[in-house]
Design brief:
This protein has helices at about 35, 70-80, 95-105, 125-135, 140-155, 160-170, 175-185, 185-195, 215-220, 240-245, 245-260, and strands at about 5, 15-20, 40-45, 85-90, 110-115, 205-210, 230-235. The protein is α/β, with parallel strands linked by helices and about 280 residues long. It has a single domain (about 5-280), classed as 3-Layer(aba) Sandwich (Rossmann fold), CATH 3.40.50.1820. Strand 4 (about 85-90), helix 3 and strand 5 form a beta-alpha-beta unit. The two termini are about 35 Å apart. It comes from Chlorobium phaeovibrioides. GO terms for molecular function: hydrolase activity. This is Alpha/beta fold hydrolase. It holds the Pfam family Abhydrolase_6.
Length: about 280
């Protein structure tokens, strides 16, 4: 089973929030969120297979070749072991794809979704990067590839902290594991197309940096098509806005989750699509 860490409140019935990191990262990417979130929720952090402290998982699983469904089921296995029937999910980058997949495989387990640096569609630049990566992955050191991708996605000086955090975490991922994860890129286009076409209706807040040039335009489009989907753009922030602007991220995400849970005061939550209170959703 995946390595996980949980923070459980004394208060009975407090809702759970599950944090899902992106490819090459680990649960440590959420270190700027934990202190604030555990004041309001039970918190569960997972390390995806091959990442962080999930270097080995239960026998009987195919550790050589796996797909997005296998990785998604890993997360649900942790929830089952802890008897968490339903939770809010917070993800960043590729972690948002896994959360979206959970909403397909087990929609009854998802109270709401907070998608940070959400990957909704691959634009031309992203498709070129993926193609180049697949072309050179066996001849170029994988850390060169990862560092190059990190710089393309997070190019500005103020993204440096996020960029270095992801690169340093990626160094802990074995090269064979990196190759297995990179093979998943072949699944991305059809999966994202399906996700874009199908509306789950689950309350979803997209928290995006205003400088997330590769992925923000697609999110701006999808919220006009999906019900109960909302966008807030965080200024002076790139792809990993929970690190670039953690205070803004925490305030906005917690307020959304508390309103969805019915735990916070009913307030008007300014959103991209409308100014309707989330309590009405």
């Amino acid at each position: 089973m995946l390595h996980y860490k949980k923070y459980q409140l004394v208060e009975p019935g407090a809702p759970w929030v599950v944090f899902v990191h992106g490819a090459g990262g680990s649960s440590s990417i959420w270190f700027l969120q934990i202190k604030e979130f555990i004041r309001h929720f039970n918190v569960l952090l997972v390390d995806l297979r091959g990442h962080g402290r999930s270097k080995s998982i239960a026998a009987g699983k195919d550790l050589r070749n796996y797909n997005f469904e296998d990785i998604t089921l890993d997360i649900l296995e942790v929830l089952d072991s802890l008897k968490i029937e339903k939770a809010h999910f917070v993800g960043v980058s590729l972690g948002t794809i896994l959360i979206r997949n959970i909403s397909e495989l087990a929609p009854q387990r998802v109270s709401s979704m907070v998608m940070s640096g959400a990957i909704i569609r691959l634009n031309v630049r992203a498709k070129v990067l993926v193609a180049l990566g697949n072309m050179f992955k066996r001849v170029v050191p994988y850390m060169w590839l990862y560092s190059f991708f990190a710089w393309i996605i997070m190019p500005r000086e103020r993204h440096r902290k996020s960029r270095l955090l992801f690169v340093n975490e990626a160094k802990k991922v074995a090269q064979k594991e990196f190759m297995r994860w990179f093979r998943l890129t072949y699944e991305l286009t059809p999966m994202l197309k399906f996700f874009e076409e199908k509306d789950t209706g689950i309350p979803t807040l997209y928290l995006m940096g205003d400088e997330d040039h590769m992925f923000l335009p697609a999110v701006e489009h999808i919220i006009t098509r999906h019900t109960n989907s909302f966008l807030q753009v965080i200024g002076d922030s790139g792809h990993v806005c929970n690190v670039d602007q953690p205070e803004e991220f925490n305030v906005r995400a917690i307020r959304f989750l508390e309103e969805i849970s019915g735990r916070g005061a009913v307030v008007s939550f300014p959103l991209k699509r409308s100014s309707v209170s989330l309590a009405a959703c």
